[in-house]
Amino acid sequence: MTLIHETDYGTPARVSETLVTLEIDGRAITVPEGTSVMRAAMDAGITVPKLCATDSLEPFGSCRLCAVEIEGRRGTPASCTTPVAPGMKVHTQTDKLAKLRRGVMELYISDHPLDCLTCAANGDCELQDMAGAVGLRNVRYGFEGENHRAAAKDESNPYFTFDASKCIVCSRCVRACQETQGTFALTIDGRGFASSVSPGAKESFMDSECVSCGACVQACPTATLTEKSIIEHGQPEHSVITTCAYCGVGCSFKAELQGTTVVRMTPWKDGGANEGHSCVKGRFAWGYATHKDRIMKPMVREKITDPWREVSWEEAVAYAAERLKAVQAKYGRGSIGGITSSRCTNEEVYVVQKMIRAAFGTNNIDTCARVCHSPTGYGLSQTFGTSAGTQDFKSVDKSDVILVIGANPTDGHPVFGSRMKKRLRAGAKLIVVDPRRIDLVRSPHVKAEYHLQLQPGTNVAVVNAIAHTIVTEGLVNRSFVEGRCDPKEFAKWEAFIAEHRNSPEYLESRTGVPADQVRAAARLYATGGNAAIYYGLGVTEHSQGSSTVMAIANLAMATGNIGREGVGVNPLRGQNNVQGSCDMGSFPHELPGYRHVSDDIVRQEFETAWGVTLDPEPGLRIPNMFDSAHDGSFRGLFVQGEDIVQSDPNTNHVTSALESLDIVIVQDLFLNETAAFAHVFFPGTSFLEKDGTFTNAERRINRVRKAMPSKVGKDEHWVACALATAMGYPMHYETTSEIMDEIARLTPTFRGVSFEKLDRVGSVQWPCTGFEDDDTGMAIMHEESFARGLGRFVITEYVPTDERTTRMYPLVLTTGRILAHYNVGAQTRRTANVAWHPEDVLEINPVDAEIRGVKDGDMVSLASRMGATTLRAVISDRMPAGVVYTTFHHPVTGANVITTENSDWATNCPEYKVTAVQVARSNQPSDWQVDYAKNDVERKRIAAANVIAAE
Length: 951
Ligand code: SF4
Ligand code: SF4
Ligand code: SF4
Ligand code: FES
Known about the structure:
By secondary structure, this protein is of the alpha/beta class. Strands 14-13-28-27-26-15-16 form a 7-stranded mixed β-sheet, with helices on both faces. Strands 33-35-34-37-32-36 form a 6-stranded mixed β-sheet. The two termini are 31 Å apart. The chain binds iron/sulfur cluster (3 copies) and FE2/S2 (inorganic) cluster. One iron/sulfur cluster binds next to helix 4 and helix 5. Pfam families: Fer2_4, Fer4_7, Molybdop_Fe4S4, Molybdopterin, Molydop_binding, NADH-G_4Fe-4S_3.
C-alpha cells in the first residue's frame, strides 16, 4: 500500500557533479548546485510553507509564503526561487517571517469561501494546510470587501470542475499545462485583483485547446480544479501502484481507493515511464472496468445463432475442451490454435501460449502484434539482432534532432509526446515524415523544420532517399560503421543506396516530396548532433513495413546514431503490452525470448521444463488461420482479449472465416464483435483486477497490481490453466509470481526479473539478467556492440504497393487513432471520452471535398474494392489532396470493411495505411452497416439478458 500524499519537495531535483554545502536553521546540508533553498530545506527535514511551488514545476515565486531570511542578504527572499550558495546561512522560522506569512495567508483567506467542511478537497487542500502551518487565527480585513467568491463554476469537462471562487491564482495549473503537458491551454487573464485563470480566450475547458491530461488538476493546491469522481465519492483512503492498460508508454499510476472503489487515478511521480504525468485515457477513462456491459459469467451455446446459456466455469471449460478435442480428433492436431492479447499481462499471455503449444500440441499461436508491430520485430532483429526499441524515454531529453516517421505521439503516445515537445521547445530540431499534418508539425512553441508530406506507401522511397543523400554527400559516420558494422554488408548497401534510382530527385514524382526538402532533412539528421528516430504504425502497417524498419535501422547505423543517449531507433508501441506479448512467445515461430521453435537446444529446454514434446515447425499466423478456415483445415480458435472482427483488415473475410469454424472461444470483458461468432465466452478481468506485469515500448517491465478483487471471481490465467488441464495437460500456478519465475527461468533476457525485485526497485528494462537490486536492466541498447555482434545493413529496395489508385478509386485512405480513444474503442467508448469523439469521421482535403460537392459535416460513402461504409466528412487541410483519413474506434463505422488483405512481405502485417477509395455524398448507411445494425440489436439483447441473469 502506498501513501496517498507523497512528499512535495517544492522544486524539481537538480543534477550536478558540483555539490554545495550550506546551513539551514543551524543544520548543515549538502546538495547539488542549482538546488533551491526550499528543496535543500526539505532534504534537511525542514518544511517551508509554500503555495505556488510544487516539485513537478519550475519555481515561479508568486505567493511569497516561502520567504526566508539569509544572513548577509537584505529582505526576505523566496526560498523556492533562490538557489543555494556555498556557506549560505538560512533561517526559515523567525518572528518576522511568521508575521509576513500570516499576512499573506490573511489576504488569501479573506477572498476564499469558508466552506472547508463541505469542500471536496477537505483533507487534501494545501491552502487549508498552510493556514494551519502559519498559525492563522483571524482575518483582519474581514470577508465583506470585494472578492471572487461568487465566481461561476465551469463544469464543461466530463472529468473535472473548475470552481473559480476557490482560485488563489498561483499559476500552478497554467505552468503545468505549459511545462508538463505542452498544450498552453491556460492563461492568467487580467492583472492584479482582476486576474483569473482562463482556458483559451475565456472559453470553457471543453471548448478550449485543453486535452484533459489532468496535469493542472493535479497541480492545483486548492479545490478549484477537482476531479468529479472525488466530488462524488470523497477523498481516497488508500492507494495501490499499478500500470495504465492503454498505450505502450506504460504510465505508472496510484489507483486511489475507498475500499475496493477506485475514486481517482493519479500519475505516480516515481513512474519510470511517465514521472508523474498522464493523458486523458489513463487518468480518467477507467470507468469501463465497472461498466454494466461487462459479462460476469461464462456462457456457452451450440451454434452462434443460439442464445447464450450461462454456465459454471467448470462446465464452460469442459465444454470448450470437449469441442476442441473433437475437432482435433477429426481434423488433426493443427486444426486449432489461439491468439494472445497485448492488453493482457505478460503472465496471462505466457500461459495462453503455453496452453496452445503444450496442451493443444501446436504452434498455431499468434498475437495482435501481427497487425501492428510484427515488422519491428523482424526488421530490428535482422539489423541489430534484437526485436525492441533501443532507448528509454528519457533519452529524448538529450536529442538534438528528432525524426518522427509514421507516428503521431501527441495522440497515440501522449505522455511521451509531451516529453518530446518539451525537448523541442528547448531547442531540438524536428523532422516529420507523414502524409498527414500531425499536431507536432505545428503546435504551441513547436514547429517542424521539415514536414516531408509523402504519398502513403512510399516510406521506403523517402528513407532510401535520405540515406542516398547521406551516402553521396559524404555524411556517413565512417568510424562508427567501420568499428561497429559488418563491412561486407555495408559495402553492398552503400553501392545500392548510392544508385540514382534512390536519389531524392528520381523518387520525387513517386513520393510527392520535393527533393530539396529530403536533402535538407537528411543533412540535418546526419549532422545536427544526437539524432533519434521515433516511428509508429505508419511505418509498419504497409506491404513494405519490414523494409522501412530496416531502412530506418540502416540510417541510424550509417550516421552512428545508435548506442548512446539522445539517439536510437524507437518503435512507439501501440498497445500497453505489445512488447510483452511478443517477448512471451506469442509468434508461431518463436518461443519466449524470440527463440525459434526449430532450434533443437531451445526446444529441448522448454520440453524439459514443460514435460511435453513440442512441434519443431512454425504454426499458422493470424491471416493463415483465416485462409485455412476458409479452406476447411482450420476449425477451432481461442481468442484472448482481442476483437479481431473489428481490428483486422477486410472484415468480411474475417467474419466468414469465423463463421466456418466449429468452435470459437472468446475471453474478454465485453461481448465484442468477435464474440458474435463464439460458442464459448469466458469473462475477462480489467487491469484493475489483474496481478502481473506489462512491458512498455522502452522494454520496461512494470508491475500491474490488483486494486480490486476480480469482479468475475477468477483470475484470467485460471481459464488457460483449466482448459489446458481439461485438454490433458495439467497446468496450475498457485500465484502469479510463480508464472513470472518460470518465465525468468526460461527466458534469458528476463533472468533477473521477479515480482519481489520489481516490488523493491519499481521497474526494470530487459535485458535484465542479474538478480541484485542494482541490476535494473538496460536503458540504452547496443552501447558497445550490437546484440547480433556487428550491425547489419540490409538492402531495402523500394517496391510500390499493389494497391493502386484508379479512376474508380482515385483517393488513398490511410487510418490512425486519436487521443480520446484506444484501438477498437471497446474500453474508451464505455467512458466519457466519447464526448470528444462520438463517431469516426473522414478527414478530407478541401480540394477533394469541393470536387465531390462535399461540405463539412456531410455524410459520405467511403468505398474500396473490398467494401463500403458511410460516415461523416470533416474538411481538413491536415490532409494533402488525394489522401483521406479515418479512425477505427467505432464498430459501426466498419473502417476495416474498406481495408485490403495486402500485407507486409515478411510478417503479413496488414497494409492498413494504403487503400484506394472513392468518396461520394450519401444519405444512407452501407449494406454492411445495415447488417451490422441488425446483429448489434441482437447482441445488445443477449448482453442485456445476460446482465439481468447475472445480477
Ligand atoms: S486553478 Fe488552482 S492551480 Fe490554477 S491558479 Fe487557481 S488555485 Fe492555482
Ligand atoms: S487538463 Fe491538461 S491540457 Fe487541459 S488545461 Fe489542464 S494541463 Fe492543460
Ligand atoms: S494511455 Fe498511454 S500515455 Fe496515456 S496514461 Fe496510459 S500509458 Fe500513459
Ligand atoms: S512557494 Fe515560493 S513564492 Fe510561492
